[in-house]
Amino acid sequence: MPQKIVVCGAGFIGTQITRLLAKTPSIHVQLSSRTPEKSYDQLKSTLPSSSLLPPVPVDVKSAPSLSSAFKDASMVISLVGIMHGTPKDFEDIQWKGAANIAGAAHDVGAKLVHFSAIGADSSSPIPYVRTKGLGEKAVLEKHPNATIIRPSLVFGPDDDFFNRFSRLSTFLPFLPVFGGGSSLFQPVFVDDLARLVDLIAKDASVAKTVQGKIIEAGGPEVFTYKQLMEAVLKYNGRTRPIVSLPFAVGTLQGAILEQLPVNLFTVTRAQVEQLKSDNIVNPNPEANCFALETLFRKHGSTPGLRSIHDVLPSYL
Is residue 216 within a helix (H) or strand (E), and if so which, with residue range? Predict the structure, then answer.
């Protein structure tokens, strides 16, 4: 009997996960978000019609809408998250919304894979970081066997980081970094995240191994923020100086730009504050936490993790 997997949340990560899962005839994927039709229309022409179920709109703030959408699901993949909003918006989506998804998945007997973020910290003053941490705690309270995936910066053809800075380099005479651009990142390829979810969905031994665990998902290399800007310019073929600005200037810029509608130039004070911390896999993980690379190596998943140098030339 085909298994129903619900991808809950819009975005390019969910789209890529759906593409890979739908290659398996025994898996039927349902897209659910506030407006899943856009992603569904994007995918239906490239996937077998039998693999993609009709989309089902949901509101993560409404538990009843989730319960009906998750009926008969064997797995739910929770990708709910926002980058911009008020503190209440972050709480409603990344904390309480994540808890609602976990509760609904548990109630229908579905496995749960919840996407969080490296650096999630329930005590952080930054709304994005704090609610990611609170969301993790709430998810494990509602669904103790859930698997939590914490990616670093995610890259791929439809990403919002490398593509954004590549576009900015067409308008700006320089690319800015803050505080010397020394904060560290460990970019992970979106296809490698999709491979991880696919492995959990298809391999019972892997699914058992990761129950109630946290997987920190970073790529094979660590880069400074400045080095990431250098990579953007290297692969889009433009020559621009990279100029370091004090964090105070970024904070002032954020105070102004966050009052305007979100656009290509948007940066917020919270995002500038996040750049003061590294975003890499913990080299000394807790007992319930391990690295994506470790999991792939243990279970013989090939090829290895892809670097930005392998992929960026194909889309910048």
Answer: strand 214-217
